[in-house]
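@here heads up, posting the sequence + SMILES for the adenosine-5'-triphosphate run so it's all in one place. Ping me if the SMILES looks off, I pulled it from an old spreadsheet.
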Amino acid sequence: MKPAAASPAGFSLRRRLVWQFAALSLLLVVALFFAVRFAAERASRASQDAVLGAAVISVGDGIRAVEEELELDLPYATFSMLGAMGNERIFYSLSTGDGLVTGYDDLPQPQVTPGDLSPVFYGADYRGSRLRLAALTRRVLLGQRIEEITVVLGQTRYGQAAIARDTARSAAWIGLGFLALTVPVALWAARAVIRPVDRLAEAVTRRGPQDLRPVLHPAPRELVPLMGALNGFIARLRGALQLAETFIFEAAHRIRTPLSLVRTEAEMALAETTDEALRQRLRRMVRAIGESSRSANQILDHAMVLYRSDQFMAEPVDVAALAGSVLRSVRAVAEMRDIEMRAEGLDQPCPVLGDARMIEVALRNILDNAVKFSPDEGNVLLRLSRDGGMARIEVTDQGRGLVAGDADLTGRFRRGSNVGDVVGSGLGLTIVTEVAAAHGGRFTLSPRPEKGTCATLFLPLSSASA
Ligand SMILES: Nc1ncnc2c1ncn2[C@@H]1O[C@H](COP(=O)(O)OP(=O)(O)OP(=O)(O)O)[C@@H](O)[C@H]1O
Ligand SMILES: [Mg+2]
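bot reply: prediction finished. Complex structure tokens:
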């Protein structure tokens, strides 16, 4: 049987699963990178703010009033702690309501007046760097008045940014490591998901074309509707095939037999009557019955061949013996017109793997054509030989031959333009090509250079004899 053309392959479920898995993982890695960077920045800023806050308090604590003068004791140890993270730059300023007392006079001041217990934190750009600043107010008794002194301490945060960057980069590397792992994991997961589908497809493919039992292969719940639909199709196909089988066999009996009966009756009536007008009529009747009986036979044979090629069951067939028996049955018709039928190569068995009934019908059609299109007293030769791995059955005649302009004569109901006077339905060669295709062989019809036609049927030899 010819394998049905597969529908064009769509997307691959497996590939789609792997891609989706990998794309999702990549998205997660990017999200992880930014989340870790954000968290690391927050954590390091909080801890550095604590240090900066402690530093500004200790600077504030170093302010004293000595004999109506302000004195500042700068805590250098604290400053070196601030720079410990990286090569940070540190700025400070002490100012009163009257102006700068000491330090950098243009250092950005806080927007709000800071309290004297907990420092105020803010950020500002200063001298080309981004600074994090902490400010504090200290009250000092200077003689009779209380002086409010704002202490501002700022530092660059190069170290913090570097730490956040490094941490996020490490997280990204770990994420990429996971990503590399996701591809094999995704492949494995996709395979596990697809495996039941593969198994089901395998189970269905493994069965022969004749096996029309319902598919009862265990399948996951998601495939149950598909299995139901498949079994529905199988059941319908089984019903249709049964119907076709019944029709072919019943029709063969109920059409062929009565037709030949009617024909015999008409022929007998023709022999018995002497009335010329009635004889004319009976002759037309016999011819019409002959034609319809021939068409019915060919149509039924064609249906049988289609049915059997669908249900193709190959078994060893000896083509030599089969060709011999078909030749004998055709010879009876040939002898009536003095056509000599010869055979070559039938003395050796020639086993092919196929359906004997189909091959017989094909051979009968080829020989029938050779006889039908030969003149009285013509010659028909059947030659059987082996050609490569094929059995080659060649039937040559010296008949009317083919007309060069005629298109492919193997099509349904196609007949040559030179055969109008010969009864025929145009299905014989369709049947032959169908049989050849079902067996994996081929059929050719070619004119012979001298006179007549050469029909050649190739059928693959069974492997044991090839
Ligand atoms: N041996 C042959 N010699 C000449 N023409 C042939 C020969 N074999 C086939 N043909 C041509 O091929 C055409 C198709 O052949 P095919 O056997 O299909 O039809 P048919 O013989 O006309 O009808 P039937 O269905 O009754 O066999 C024929 O009508 C004829 O024109
Ligand atoms: Mg024919």
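MO: The chain has three domains: 29-165, 209-311, 314-466.
MO: One more: Residues 209-311 form one domain.
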